[in-house]
Write a structure and sequence with these properties.
Blueprint (H helix, E strand, L loop, with lengths): L1 H14 L16 E4 L6 E8 L4 E8 L5 E6 L8 E7 L5 E8 L5 E3 L6 E7 L4 E8 L15 E7 L12 E6 L17 E6 L3 E2 L5 E9 L7 E9 L8 E8 L10 E3 L12 E7 L5 E2 L4 E5 L7 E9 L8 E2 L2 E7 L5 E2 L1 E7 L6 E2 L6 E8 L3 H5 L6 E9 L4 E10 L2 E9 L10 E9 L4 E8 L8 E2 L10 E7 L4 E8 L1 H7 L7 H7 L7 H13 L2 E7 L4 E6 L50 H19 L3
Parallel strand pairs: 20-24, 25-35
Antiparallel strand pairs: 1-2, 2-3, 3-9, 4-5, 4-10, 5-6, 6-7, 8-9, 10-11, 12-23, 13-22, 14-17, 14-21, 15-19, 15-20, 15-23, 16-18, 16-21, 25-34, 26-33, 27-32, 28-31, 28-34, 29-30, 29-32, 35-36, 36-37
Helix pairs in contact: 1-6, 3-4, 3-5
Family: Belongs to the copper type II ascorbate-dependent monooxygenase family.
Cofactor: Cu(2+)
InterPro entries: Cu2_ascorb_mOase-like_C, Cu2_ascorb_mOase_N, Cu2_ascorb_mOase_N_sf, Cu2_monoox_C, DBH-like, DOH_DOMON, DOMON_domain, PHM/PNGase_F_dom_sf
Amino acid sequence: MACALLFRLLLLMALGAPSQGNGLSPTSHLRYSRFLDPSNIIFLRWDFDLEAEIITFELQVRTAGWVGLGVTNRYTNVGSDLVVGGVLPDGNVYFSDRHLVDEDTLEEDGSQDAELRGLTEDAVYTTMRFSRPFRSCDPHDQDITSDTVRVLAAYGLDDTLKLDRERTFVKSIFLLQIVHPDDLDVPEDTIIHDLEITDFLIPEDDTTYACTFLPLPIVSKKHHIYKFEPKMVQHNETMVHHILVYACGNASALPTGISDCYGADPAFSLCSQVIMGWAVGGTSYQFPDDVGISLGTPLDPQWIRLEIHYSNFHNLPGVYDSSGIRVYYTAELRKYDMGVLQLGFFTFPIHFIPPGAESFMSYGLCKTEKFEEMNRAPVPDIQVYGYLLHTHLAGRALQAVQYRNGTQLRTICKDDSYDFNLQETRDLPHRVEIKPGDELLVECHYQTLDRDSLTFGGPSTINEMCLIFLFYYPRNNISSCMGFPDIIYVAQELGEEASDSMEAMMAMNNVEWTPESIKKAEKACKEAQQTVIIKTIDEIVENTTGWISEIIRAPRGPCLESSGGKVEPQDKIPEGFRAAPMALSGSNTATWRRLPLAALLFGQGVLFLLLTTLQAGV
């Protein structure tokens, strides 16, 4: 017995005990998954521990060669981090934390911050599981954040570590999803209802906003919508940019048919309270178990406006569409009725972004002090639980910031790596309380280095928007609260004369846009007085004014030092090493991770001691 215990103890000393630091064992079920390439060759599973700030990945690739997973940025793969591994023909495993020094060359990091949890190869797949901190102290490692993350995946046909563009893929993913759909309840009495446009001939125009008015389900008692998803018709290319569902006030006189939302007939732009929305890259969304959209009471809308934005940039003829939103509703009532508050920059006609801008910030202010007066009833504190961010192609980042009594309280939501092709409703990690009188500021960050003319706010994809939709409870009648700057002041600060807003906007075409004038315009837009436009579900509109407050940027959190020690790239042997589990799960035969020379010498010494002890008969 003593021999057996001593043998196990010394073997663990030699080979390293399994790490229990992140709460996910080498065989734990990973809740999230996605294919990373169009041919479904690369499959990723992942999960994370928010408290420990550790994320675990499992990459499964149809190859007998090496596999790699990491994080890159919007502009280039050079500098990206990539964790690579594979199984050699003799059964030995190789695994390392690396980065790209050019488009196809990998160099090993001085600090090894990824921990191997399993690496196997069979007749079809190579599967690698590893953990890494959200933020390591290695400058070669990209952070895992609550922003959109551009995941880099690559593989080879053999064990030669060299990138091939045909086998390298980047996919934008929101990795730190707080709520998984499996965590939510699905009512047994679920009813499905489709809100869709029918056989609509998409015009041969770059941009079309098609609107129609549809009744919500008729129910004899109160129900709750608890989930929605896009109902799409597949085309040769994706032409549906976004779909919005607006609740209509029950006193509204609504037109029939399908027409341009913002065209000659203003009736087709009635109803402005968004209750559901989908945009490019989004999927289904299920509300938290205590929240739903109310149906069937006298206070609930009976009709909605369905808005579909089509982008037909190739001017394809003869394409018919029947897309829309599918809703799931139930008689099992939730605790709260939810609403959606639209914030941001009032889109038209004041918004502009200069050409050739490395960076340009736009701001839209919301002041909630008039909410109770416009709601015609007391407004309880708003509890925000989710959000949807929206800009067009020039957008790079967005955030919504909350102020109370002139002091910044928090950033409600943000994405510093916004991707136009991944617009989805996301849950907040904690619910945020907004009190009447609070100010809400939306900041949008744009880049227009690829443009040589002004970009204006507007409906087209080549125009711009700056919008954030907050999902909250309990519902009130306020549909939107958006701001825009005094454009006459902005024009005058840029040396242009203007007597009204339209003349000021036209004057922007006269400005010679240089890095200096771009910064001057950004400063003037921020310093100008903001007009705040507040609208209710019944189309009541009131204005107020305010000023943009400074935004205090949150510092980056502390990094997690690798227990392998910090080393310089030129160092051959780390100052210390982490002895990861050597026997990899799922293998038919034992495979071993290659260790630094110091570790091998240490292991040989322990094994020598073990043999000597056993021979002595201990």
